Amino acid sequence: MQTKELLKEVRFKVGMTQKEFAEYFHIPLRTYEQWERGLREMPEYTLRLLLYKIQSEKLAENITEDMANEVN
Fold first, then answer.
1. What's the predicted TM-score (pTM) here?
2. N or C: at which end does the chain have fewer Cβ atoms within 10 angstroms?
């Protein structure tokens, strides 16, 4: 799975729009949009941190750090 697909899947599981997701994680909206469209590569450590925060704050079910390992 590509990072952009994983980001979109995670965002849908959390139930947020791109704007809400970006604001919640203090990421500039333009940057997040580019990550999700695949125009810009998200650093792997950032992905792991997002997944950890979602998991620890119980924002969505079935979110694990192992999802980051699915990225090609």
1. 0.85
2. C
